[in-house]
Amino acid sequence: MTAACTSFGRVTRPSPRVVTAAEAIAALRSEKDSTDIILPYGNGRSYGDTCQVEDGTLVDMRSLNRILDFDAATGVITAEAGVLLSDIIAHAAPHGFFPPVVPGTQFVTLGGAIANNVHGKNHHRRGTFGCHVERIELLTSDGETHLCTPATNTGLYSATIGGMGLTGIILSASLRLMRVPSLDIIEKTVPFDSLAQYFEQAETADRENEYAVAWIDQLAAGRRAGRGLLISGNHAKQGARQADTAGRRLSVPFQPPLNVLNRPFLTAFNAAYRWRRGRDLSAHRTGYQGFFFPLDGVTNWNRLYGPKGLFQHQSVIPFEAAAETIPAMLEAARMAGQGSFLTVLKRFGAIASPGLLSFPRPGYTLTLDFPNRGARTLALLGELDAITVAAGGAVNPYKDARMSAETFAASFPAWRQMEAMRDPAFLSRFWARTAMRLGNRDQGLARAAE
């Protein structure tokens, strides 16, 4: 069971002990004020160590997977925390509803989507996932169950959204879905030859479309540097109202002994991808699976990065700094000889999150992923962190497996407030190596000043 509770990037070791949700809930309700360290675990789509614990126990939440209620008039669905986003889509689609925010995979749990306050291709229209959470049922280590809403237990509500599982176990939650005419998407692709062209088009694309995202050819250099495709979409007025539950069609059945996604492969892939997607520039209908979750069609695709796993780096850069900073980040990766298989650029809007810690904020977000080549890759990631922080930006914690405590503090100034709201029995490896280290340093400085 431990092997199943890994991080998606596979660069961190699994936690040593795992229990079921039922076992953990029973223990918390019977043993008041537990001092044992625990952490809820969703479906393992976080890339780093926010879903891992050092000297403690992971709580596998996937057995809490029932949809409890659905109001077909309002679109409010209530489900247990282990329900997958794919299950919510399948349940609500026949009634004309769809999640207002979806990340790049539908195989995340409801509790995980709340704990990470995930975002999608429509932040400019809908904000983060947490903006649509109406109610959270939270079990804390004192055995008490708290109902948290924007008006009740507001502190816990705010800390739980984006709180990375540190406030307690989410038992269930209510989410207000978005009414859509169909699941199908009318998609349009516009090639651009430089990042300057992208920045000129991005705001208009957001204004005119529900969804917008750019793919970047990260390896392109010289006059081709920054080229890519701006992909936008809206729900079709007529089309499918049943979820595609046929299952994934491809698989990486075993772990290759080396990284398949090497530079020659990526160069060829990027050229082919740009050519294929750039052939049809007219608006056309596509299924929601291919538009939102293209990699969900390949089981265990993360194995392609090799036995050492992968790092993903996601940053957000303020609008005023993006035109200089994002090209510098792409150049840093090229100069380091590192190729990113998936390089995505999106524009965040100004919709405020209800979460105390929230990664999305006004600006542009760049996502890169790299095979783990040890010290070389870590040095590049540190350089990308430094560029991000110098520009006034932030690094995404739930995509992270190695950022420094200082980078986290610069990215999330409200970390002390989160630490104050953290349930003392809940602690992840990420929080221990960042916020706890910062807190210990603060205490040391305070004692030295006495």
UniProtKB/TrEMBL annotation:
<dbReference type="Pfam" id="PF01565">
    <property type="entry name" value="FAD_binding_4"/>
</dbReference>
<keyword id="KW-0274">FAD</keyword>
<dbReference type="GO" id="GO:0071949">
    <property type="term" value="F:FAD binding"/>
</dbReference>
<feature type="domain" description="FAD-binding PCMH-type">
    <location>
        <begin position="3"/>
        <end position="180"/>
    </location>
</feature>
<dbReference type="InterPro" id="IPR036318">
    <property type="entry name" value="FAD-bd_PCMH-like_sf"/>
</dbReference>
<dbReference type="InterPro" id="IPR010031">
    <property type="entry name" value="FAD_lactone_oxidase-like"/>
</dbReference>
<dbReference type="GO" id="GO:0016899">
    <property type="term" value="F:oxidoreductase activity, acting on the CH-OH group of donors, oxygen as acceptor"/>
</dbReference>
<dbReference type="InterPro" id="IPR016169">
    <property type="entry name" value="FAD-bd_PCMH_sub2"/>
</dbReference>
<protein>
    <submittedName>
        <fullName>FAD-binding oxidoreductase</fullName>
    </submittedName>
</protein>
<dbReference type="InterPro" id="IPR016166">
    <property type="entry name" value="FAD-bd_PCMH"/>
</dbReference>
<keyword id="KW-0285">Flavoprotein</keyword>
<dbReference type="InterPro" id="IPR006094">
    <property type="entry name" value="Oxid_FAD_bind_N"/>
</dbReference>
